[in-house]
User: Fold this.
Amino acid sequence: MKIQIAQVQHLNDICEVLKVLDTEKRTFSDKKQNLFFISKQWCYVAMESGKAEGVIVLEPTEGSYNIYTLVSKKKGVGKLLVNLAIDICRKNSIPKLWCWSLARYEAGGFYKKMGFSESFLLQKQWDSEDCYFFGKLINMDSKVSYNNIEEY
Ligand SMILES: CC(C)(COP(=O)(O)OP(=O)(O)OC[C@H]1O[C@@H](n2cnc3c(N)ncnc32)[C@H](O)[C@@H]1OP(=O)(O)O)[C@@H](O)C(=O)NCCC(=O)NCCS
Assistant:
């Protein structure tokens, strides 16, 4: 499994992977938006045998990082991508990682496993849908575990 900063040539694969997040009101797989994320170097793709097995978009916000999208198509890849996000927080001395997650995704168990101890359900928060906020403080004492993301 190789995780790399996404390039324009990954765009179609990334949009295909992200389709699972699309709702009636919001298209996370939108090409223009994902091209923007790629151009900002906020998008990382997990590749195996030339196939995209997972995607994370990590948006820097004021003093924190927002996991804007996360999809894993293969068990274990979700954990790899969140660990990458944690490493990026540490590397940049950013103490907080968080995300919105629509309740319909039922991803709470995953975020809890990944150490997101803050979990709040906000009713009709996003596009009139119930949505969780998941947040995690980053322990800055731990060592950054990568220098080159392609080591994953
Ligand atoms: C949620 C998602 C990213 C998890 O990715 P994954 O690769 O299946 O997760 P991993 O295999 O790395 O799981 C890490 C740990 O969390 C656990 N886990 C994963 N999904 C879980 C869930 N829905 N509920 C409870 N535990 C879960 C795994 O069992 C594993 O535990 P372990 O370390 O004790 O073995 C993936 O299922 C997915 O893409 N879902 C659809 C899109 C989605 O919901 N994205 C998040 C929206 S913000």
In short: The chain has four helices and seven strands.
